[in-house]
Amino acid sequence: MFTAIIVDDxxxxxxxxxxxxxxxxxxxxxxxxxxxxxxAEKLLKVYNPDILFLDISMPGGNGFDLIARLSDINFQxxxxxxxxxxxxxxxxxxxVDYILKPIKTDELVSAIQKxxxxxxxxxxxxxxxILKHNLNVVGNQNTKVAIPGGDAYDFVExxxxxxxxxxxxYTKVFLKNGKTIVSSYYIGLFKEMLENYGxxxxxxxxxxxxxxxSRYLKEGVIIMSDESQVxxxxxxxxxxxxxxxxxxxxx
Length: 251
Known about the structure:
Structural class: alpha/beta
Order of helices and strands: EHEHEHEHEHHEEEEEHEEEEEH
CATH class of the largest domain: Alpha Beta
Number of helices: 8
Strand order of the largest sheet: 2-1-3-4-5
Radius of gyration: 21 Å
Distance between the termini: 55 Å
CATH topology of the largest domain: Rossmann fold
Helix content: 25-40%
CATH architecture of the largest domain: 3-Layer(aba) Sandwich
CATH superfamily of the largest domain: Response regulator
Shape: elongated
Strand content: 25-35%
Oligomer: single chain
């Protein structure tokens, strides 16, 4: 059994979550509930749960404010959120689990399964430290991204990534220091994470950091700062020339 606390300002959502946990996640014992971060902070000291379900948007302080207050996070966090682009960007980049409102059973079960694996393996995750860092720099390339490999995460500043290349069901991430990371994420997930941070999809299998464009060859090839050559899909040529290249020239 794993213990849990639910923090959300909506009584109806707390009740729905408890019902779903009782029905589909019988290994979860809900110890307490809170409707704001002040109550949550007190409950954490009393109960020391295995899992904290934490709403992001609440009156009197959001979920991220609670995380900022805590010096040590020795439980697994599962955020509960609506479609908030700022919040979702921070969570995706930091590889922190979340479920969207209204809560879907399959997403809840999946989040619980991942949390259970982390608890049972007794791994101390760096993800929450990275999330704290990213909340202060969200939107620029000083943000750190969690890149999953076979059995661990590499935490890399986005500014250090030159490009990403889809490779079978994996992705090769090429860094400016010459290192290559092979990630278990497919290229589509990197597009979701990085396109708001100055990256551009040149081809279905290629994603580049526009800060590292060195040359563009008219036959449809982009030369990056590390001398790698990246193909540009024909249908993207006009957009690339009119948008990406013009922005690059203005810098």
